[in-house]
Amino acid sequence: MDSVPTLQMSGRTDVGCAREHNEDQIAWDASAGLALLADGMGGHNAGEVASALAISVLHPLLRDLPADTLEQEVGMQNAVADANKEILHKAASDVIFNGMGTTLALALFRGKGVMIGHVGDSRVYRLRGEQLTQLTADHSLLQELVASGFMTADEAAHAVNKNVITRALGIEPNVDVEVHHHEIEPGDIYLLCSDGLNDMVTDNSIAKLLMDNRDNLDVAADALVAEANRCGGNDNISVILVRVVALKE
Questions:
Q1: Long-range contacts, 223-232 (Cβ 8 Å, 24+)
Q2: What is the pLDDT of residues 173-194, one digit of tens each?
Q3: Rounded to two decimals, what is the model's pTM?
């Protein structure tokens, strides 16, 4: 597609140190300017089926979206709604799938910007120069407590029940995807990750690993996963890295 900026991408997904199987799914397509990450919900049946369904439905629906931001936003909301319906339909087909769900983080690059969508607590960060910025706010009980002033960010970082999410695909007939558009710059690095990374590795450590390995995304992705496992690896760990090489008019 002519409007896709020049991008480099890499990604890794890892079972971690505590889980027996990996419920995360990742996909990226640099030529389409698209990155997708889904984290099947732990504690539910067949989370890996839900995350795989989400990726398989979303990829073909999103890869050809145009550069117009309004069309992107509407297209993204419709695509996520379709993925939600597919997961619910599958869940109703067999009791073994009952209750499955997934969080979602996605990024669609066009022209001089990126449209980011997310549901749940999978995150998107941006490294610009030496500044790491979290671009998504978790749809979680803890984030709501922080936003309402009942808990500080530091208290939330050390809380026990970090993973009580308030939005996910496959739970309700309607799903509310949060969508934001950001301007991009050459040299930016975007990180999509499951909570298996950011629950184990601090933002300062993530920033340092990205800056130390910014010239090689494969090495950077390996370093992030290795650090999460070194810190305990309590959950599946998935990362996608996107470097903006050049913009498109």
A1: 224/12, 224/191, 224/193, 224/197, 225/12, 225/14, 225/197, 227/200, 227/201, 228/14, 228/16, 228/196, 228/197, 228/200, 228/201, 229/14, 229/16, 229/17, 229/200, 231/200, 231/201, 232/17, 232/18, 232/200
A2: 999 999 999 999 999 999 999 9
A3: 0.94
